[in-house]
Amino acid sequence: MSYDLKAVIARRDLLDVVTRDLSAARVVDLPHGLALLPMTDALSDALTDESRARHSAFWSLPAGFDEVLVDWSRTGSVAYVEAEYFGGVGEENAAVWRDGELVRGPLHLVEGELTPTEGSPVCQALRALGVSAGEDDEFTAAGLDAHRNNDGWLS
After folding, report:
1. Per-residue confidence (pLDDT) for residue 77, from 0 to 100
2. Do residues 97 and 77 touch, judged by C-beta distance below 8 A?
3. What is the CA radius of gyration of the chain?
4. H/E segment holding residue 150
5. Which residues, listed in sequence order, are joined to residue 9 by a DSSP beta bridge?
6. What pTM value is reported for the model?
7. Which of 36, 47, 95, 144 could form a disulfide with 105 if both were Cys (CB 3.0 to 4.6 A apart)?
8. What is the mean pLDDT of residues 105-127?
9. Are 81 and 5 in contact (CB under 8 A)?
């Protein structure tokens, strides 16, 4: 089975405000007062700034969107996460911005690397957003296991 996620995660109220004028944006509720903004092709196209370079730490972050995340983070913490797995093998990238600054990451876990003791990049980003693992890891506690791809989040 495969898993593919490319999304912004932040408080629901923050995402509602910053995406108000983005017709391609679809915000989905998560536990812990958070929400997920799946990075669809249409949203990526709407957010891409061709005059800016694409951030080399991510494979799908639209060009210039890291600067938008800096702006969004002035209102509250914002994470950008990417995860692709097939048959349990894959990669993750994540970063967290707060108060206009990059405060965590970019974090990477590439195929063949062991997961760090502090958790995968996505789990670390979720922890920075206030998700507590409890009996599960932060990934499960935040409900990111509910769907296997962005299309699932939008259905």
Report:
1. 97
2. yes
3. 14
4. helix 150-154
5. 36, 79
6. 0.91
7. 95
8. 84
9. yes
Among 8, 71, 64, CA closest to 40? 8
Q: For residues 10 and 126, is the Cβ–Cβ distance under 8 A?
A: no
| Separation of CA 33 from chain center | 15
Q: In whole numbers, what is the pLDDT of the chain averaged over residues? A: 88
Q: Which residue's entry shows tokens 């894959």? A: 90
Rounded (5°) CA angle 35-40-45: 120
- Residues contacting residue 112 through CB under 8 Å, at least 6 positions apart: none
Identify the pLDDT of residue 69: 94
On whether the CB atoms of residues 79 and 9 are closer than 8 A, the answer is: yes
The residue behind tokens 């408080």 is 11
Per-residue pLDDT reduced to its tens digit, 28-80: 999 989 999 999 889 888 888 778 777 777 878 888 888 999 999 999 999 99
